[in-house]
Design a protein that fits this description.
The chain contains 19 helices and 22 strands. By secondary structure, it is of the alpha+beta class. It has four domains: about 150 residues, no CATH class; about 170 residues, 3-Layer(aba) Sandwich (Molybdenum Cofactor Biosythetic Enzyme, Chain A), CATH 3.40.980.10; about 70 residues, Alpha-Beta Plaits (2-Layer Sandwich), CATH 3.30.70; about 150 residues, CinA-like (Maf protein), CATH 3.90.950.20.
């Protein structure tokens, strides 16, 4: 039979390497009942937030069994002792006793003595409970350090989002809050378990809050904090939580400074926005008057955020994240890279990654698709030099297979920014002539960083005849050499000449095509060559125009990068 010391070592070696949350069971007899004890190792994030040793929880299942009490020592007794894991001090015993008492009683057993049954043989193991703790979950501090190097941190808190606004339900606007909040909070270790959109009605907000309260300890609700009669989120939260509201003097003073008005002269609907919960706190609004509200109850925290994105997003970054860090504990964002693709769909990119760039299991991948542009973000749970090096190696492999379709290696550079940078690097400029796109290309490029130095000029006309007039093109070419040149190519040449620009893009009028519509697009190069192609497009809505602009810019990007006559 192995020695008690070797059995203890074997037990620890068997259990310690397991990297994630786990349970180990010790079946034992206590009086006439059999008790099952589960030692549950908590996630790393919990241990980091609380420096003490992990909790040992007890779950009891009853079954009939022979009676064995403390003091009865069968012949096959096993004593698990020794200095392998240290001895329990009186303080340790008292602490562990408090941990165990709420779940089960040890009426006739001394502290640290459990009667056990194994393979039909009764054994009494005199166990110091600290030894049991160490044997099952290892040394507390060493374990926490080891897990911090090998385990991804568990989510610190589960939250649910409630978005208010009848305009969202009517389809007038899209919900952008859920995307922003989840993207912002996930790297900090917070897990979103759902998102709801409800109307600005008291009863519906209350019903949504009841649903959310049953699923999460943190609720984020957006909208309804303004000065109008429809802004009822503040009162709905007051009624739901039972926490009163009162004017906060600091909020009132800030509002008075903002409007250059004495406090006693502020309108009632404005002063209403200074009401904050008496049990909780508020979040400052650097871009508006409606402060965020934090209702704190013993069971959960409810945070109300303003509806306008220009107010909500800075508040989340500047106020909410620090509050959540203080209240729940958050981990720093893990290392991440974002690659931006064009000319390929999500499924094509995903398939290429699976075939050529197998991702390590610890890498978290997320993607977003909009206007024929795809973002892929690769994230690791931690941010260490080794993690950053791993992501750089991953990026190199991805670019090896998808480099031609990659226009940015960060999450902030747009396709428009990319084109403008390429023009600036070459010391060249771009002129535009738009008919079927209605000026959408010019609008997109003027929003790019450093666009003023790259965009030489733009002409927008509703018809080819009007474009001829703008570019001073004659109705009939003076010679037969230009008669055969497509009209869109003529526009590209004329736009470049008038603006003294090396590059030009011309978008022709919309023409019917089988299954939809199309238009002609021409690209003029610095050497005077012009290429054109027919592009299928549905420009009657914003999404169709966005897809058209993406394709036109992508073709220009490829020509700027490669300098070939046709880089498509």
């Amino acid at each position: 039979m192995p020695s008690p010391y070797s059995r203890s070592i074997a037990l620890r070696q068997k259990l310690a390497p397991r990297p994630s949350a786990w349970e180990t069971e010790v079946s034992g007899i206590h009086g006439p009942r059999t008790s099952r004890f589960h030692a549950s190792r908590q996630g790393r994030a919990d241990r980091v937030a609380s420096p003490g040793p992990p909790a040992l929880t007890m779950v009891v299942s009853r079954a009939r069994a022979p009676s064995i009490h403390a003091g009865q020592t069968p012949a096959t007794q096993t004593i698990v002792k020794g200095r392998a894991f240290g001895d329990a001090t009186p303080r340790d015993k008292a602490e562990m006793g408090r941990t165990m008492r709420p779940r089960t009683q040890f009426n006739r057993c001394e502290y640290g003595v459990m009667a056990m049954k194994s393979n039909g043989t009764r054994r009494v193991c005199q166990v110091h409970l600290l030894l049991l703790l160490f044997a099952t979950i290892g040394w507390p501090r060493a374990s926490a350090a080891a897990v911090s190097e090998s385990e991804p941190a568990a989510a610190l808190v589960r939250y649910l989002i409630v978005v208010t606004g009848g305009e969202l339900l009517a389809g007038d606007y899209a919900d952008g809050h859920t995307v922003f909040l989840t993207r912002t909070l996930r790297p900090l270790g917070l897990e979103c378990v759902g998102s709801l959109i409800v109307d600005d009605r008291h009863a519906e907000i209350q019903e949504a809050l009841r649903f959310a309260a049953g699923r999460a300890s943190l609720i984020l609700i957006t909208g309804g904090l303004g000065p109008t009669d429809n802004d009822i989120t503040r009162e709905a939260l007051r009624d739901f939580t039972g926490i009163a509201l009162q004017e906060h003097p600091d909020v009132l003073a800030a509002m008075a400074r903002r409007f250059s008005t004495p406090i006693d002269q502020l309108r009632a609907n404005l002063r209403r926005q200074s009401q904050t919960p008496v049990q909780g706190t508020y979040l400052k609004n650097s871009a508006g008057t409606a402060v965020g509200l934090v209702f704190e109850t013993p069971q959960r925290v409810i945070v109300a955020l303003p509806g306008p994105p220009r107010e909500l997003q800075p508040m989340v970054q500047e106020e909410l994240i620090p509050y959540l860090s203080r209240r729940f504990g958050t981990r720093p964002p893990g290392a991440a890279i974002t690659l931006r693709f064009v000319g390929l769909g999500q499924s094509q990119i995903d398939q290429t990654l699976k075939e050529h760039v197998p991702l390590p299991p610890e890498v978290i991948t997320s993607s977003q698709f909009e206007g024929n542009r795809v973002d892929f973000t690769f994230t690791l749970p931690r941010d260490t030099p080794a993690d950053r090096a791993q992501l750089q190696e991953l990026k190199t492999k991805v670019l090896r297979h998808l480099g031609d379709n990659t226009y940015a290696e960060d999450g902030t550079t747009s396709l428009e920014d990319c084109v403008v940078k390429l023009l600036a690097a070459r010391g060249e400029t771009l002129a535009l002539a738009e008919i079927g796109s209605g000026g959408a290309l010019a609008a997109a490029l003027t929003g790019a960083r450093e666009a003023q130095g790259a965009l030489a000029g733009a002409h927008v006309a509703p018809t080819p005849e009007r474009m001829r007039h703008l570019l001073s093109l004659p109705e009939q070419p003076p010679n037969g050499d230009t008669a055969s040149i497509p009209l869109t190519q003529q526009f590209a040449r004329a736009a470049a000449e008038e603006a003294a620009s090396q590059w030009a893009v011309a978008i022709g009028e919309i023409r019917p095509a089988s299954g939809g519509s199309s238009l002609e697009v021409a690209w003029r190069r610095p050497d005077g060559r012009v290429e054109s192609r027919s592009v299928r497009a549905q420009v009657s809505d914003a999404s169709g125009r966005a897809r058209l602009i993406t394709e036109v810019l992508d073709q220009l990007r490829r020509r700027l990068r490669q300098g070939a006559p046709d880089a498509s």
